[in-house]
Design brief:
This protein is mostly helical and 242 residues long. The chain has one domain. The chain has 9 helices and no strands. The two termini are 19 Å apart.
Amino acid sequence: MITSDGSQLPVARPTDREARIAGLLYLLAGVPAPFGSLQAPAALRVPGDPAATLQHIVQSPGLLRGGVLAELASAVLLILAAAALRRLFAAVDRWNGDLVLVLASLPAAIVFSGVATQLAALAVAQGALGPDASALTPPIALMLTEIHRVGIGLANIFWGLWIIPLGVLVIRCRFIPSMIGWALIAGGASYVAASVIAIAWPPLLPIANPVSWTIGGLAEFTFILWLLIRGAGTARAAATAS
């Protein structure tokens, strides 16, 4: 940074501690996500069968609440991870760092609204509409779980979008191999592509999902491992500078 008198201030390098905190938060954000977003809702929802869906919800309220808690934990940890990554790359590119934080907050916001529909489905299943609406209870419960499922699909679009500027930051930072950054960009693009396919060409989803999960998952896991094991290369950067 150049001051008004023409002198140059030293640029703070990211530390190994900052890198490992960001990597740990990123890892923890992904741990509860599959259960909360996929496994628990899939176990409760029976496509096209409102009565069976209602029965599952009534018989397994703990499963639904557990899924909700897992989704909330994942969303909060995702925001914290994005904030930690923004701080880690603050000296690299502020614009893309801000973009990472904003785009990562959007899927978290969608998750927050999605868990509301899950809790509403539980309330409906437990008779919140009253005995006079008993005939409407099963279809409403199924509709609410369907809204949650669709919301998860929309959240995946932004999950892919926020990883793309993250990849740009990795490429520019010089303390993480640029190939990891390119892999993150490819992974983010594959998530977005799979989400678009889910909307436009659903029959192709059984092919698109495994491909996107493989590309994106490997890229994210490699990035997380680098942060946790190698950190930000503070010692190596200092030695190079000297």
